[in-house]
Amino acid sequence: xxxxxxxxxxxxxxxxxxxxxxxxxxxxxxxxxxxxxxxxxxxxxxxxxxxxxxxxxxxxxxxxxxxxxxxxxxxxxxxxxxxxxxxxxxxxxxxxxxxxxxxxxxxxxxxxxxxxxxxxxxxxxxxxxxxxxxxxxxxxxxxxxxxxxxxxxxxxxxxxxxxxxxxxxxxxxxxxxxxx
Length: 180
Hints:
By secondary structure, the protein is α+β, with helices and mostly antiparallel strands. Helices cover 33% and strands 32% of the residues. It has a single domain (3-171), classed as Aminohydrolase, N-terminal nucleophile (Ntn) domain (Glutamine Phosphoribosylpyrophosphate, subunit 1, domain 1). The longest helix is centred in the middle third of the chain and has 17 residues, at 55-71. The radius of gyration is 15 Å and the shape is globular. The N and C termini lie far apart (42 Å). The mean pLDDT is 90.
């Protein structure tokens, strides 16, 4: 049975960056958990991460990412790149199935196991089963509303939950000040 989990969305808007995720974990055709915490602060809350995919895999990656952040203090893109390189080349890590979204005051990054470190042009990033739905909703809300970054993330995740069966409305949103 395949473990399916989640929708994570990040939006940078009006001097703030928000990242949020739903709480659903699905195994096969059953909902196993409805309130999983998939948003994690790192380095005392200066960096926020969200993960999609296997929870145990994601936790292993987040631990390694935190180590990389300590190796390259203040340089989130470099730490993410080093994690992606290690993830792609390490025999054990290469089997991990997860994606990690990372935000800080300056950066919005997607880190994947195939070596990708991607910074979206518009600072809207969605991952997981409902990620595309959430991104579409967030882009519309950024362009056509006066909502804050956190409000956009919450509303877009609610829209994704109304479409994607692997996303629910048990939403957690965290926010940081942004330099952009």
